[in-house]
Amino acid sequence: MSQTEQLSRWRLILGAETEQSFGGMGGMPLSREELLMDSALGAIYGGPGESFGESGRGAGKGPSSPVISKWLGDLRSLFDPETVAVVQNDAIERKGLKQLLLEPELLDTLEPDLNLASTLLMLKDQIPKKSKESARSFIRKIVEEINKLLENDMRRAVTAALNRRAHSPLPSASALDFPYTIRRNLKNYNKELGVVIPERVWFFDRSSRVNRWHVILDIDQSGSMGQSILYSSVMACVLASMSAVKTSVVAFDTQIMDLTPLCADPVDLLFGFQMGGGTDIAKSIAYCQNLVESPAKTLFFLISDLDEGGNRAGLLRRLEELKSSGVTVVVLLAIADGGKPYYDAQTAQRVAAMDIPCFACAPEKLPELLERALTGGLGAGWEVTLQR
Prior knowledge:
By secondary structure, the protein is an alpha/beta fold. Helix content is about 50%, strand content about 10%. It starts with a helix and ends with a helix.
C-alpha cells in the first residue's frame, strides 16, 4: 500500500476535522467514492456536529427519513454485508432509531409516511421479531393509501384500453363500441337524414382471455428507489389481480429476483425486495427478455434511476432489442421526496434519443400511463401530460 493510500485511510478513520492536517502531510484529496464513504461513516461515528446528510450539520433536529434511506443505500453500495450489519446496528443504537424499531407501540401510533416506510423496508432484516407485525401493519397502511389513489382508476384504464382493442360478434347494447362503429361507417353517412347508417356494428369482447397483454415490471431495488418501489408494488398487485392481463415482477440490484409469486399481497411483495446495494440494469433486462412470449402484446416497464453500475452500453443495447422486437418499452425514472425525479441524466437522454419514453410520472398519473401504453397513445406531448 502506498503512502498516499495509507494517508487516505487514516483520514477516513479520523474524520473530516483532520482534512487540513493530512493535506499538510502530502495527502491527496479524497476521491468521490471515499467522500461518500466518509459522509456515510461520519453520520454515525463523527463528532457532535455531524449527522446524516452530506453537510454533516444536523442542527440538533435529527435526521429526516429520506436522508436515512439514502444513507442506507450508500452504505450498502460501499461496504460488504457484514460491515453494513455492524454499522446499521450502531446507527440504531446511536441515532435514535432503536426505539422506533424495537417498540411496536410506537410504530402503531405513527401516521403513514412514504419515507419512513422506505426506511423500514431497508432495515427489515434488523427489525426484532416482536416488532415485525407492527412494521407490516405500518407498511399496509401505506399500501392502503396508495391503493385508494390508484386501484379504481387503474382497473378502469386497463379495462377501457383492452376493450377498445377487442371486439365480439355477440350483440349487446351495453357492450356497443359507439366511437369505433361510427368511424368504420362514416362512408355510409346519409345526407338527407343527417345520420350514419351502419352496415356493421362492433361490440366489445368482455369475456375473451385469449392472447392477453403481458405487463413486465423490472424494478430497481437500489437505495434511492424507496418511493418508486412502494408505488410499483401496488401497481403490480392491482394488475396481477386482473385476469385480462398477465403480470410479471422482477427486482434487481446486481442479482435478479423474480417476485411474481408474491403479487397476491402487496405487503408480501414489498418485503420481498432487498433494498440497497449495486445495480446491473443490463443483466435484469436480459432476464426479462426471456419472459417475452408475444412481443406485440408485451408492455415492459423499466423502473429505475438509471444509475448503471454494470454495462451502460449493454443496457442501451438491450432496450433497443426489446423495442425492435415489437415490445412496448417505457422507462419510469425514480421519484424521491414530494415526487421529484431522481436519475442519471446522461443515460436518460440516451434512452430518450432511442425514441423510448423515459420520464418521471406522477403516481396519480399511472392509470393514464397504462391506458396510453396499451393503446399506443404515448405519442407527441405525452411527457407533459403525464408529469403534471
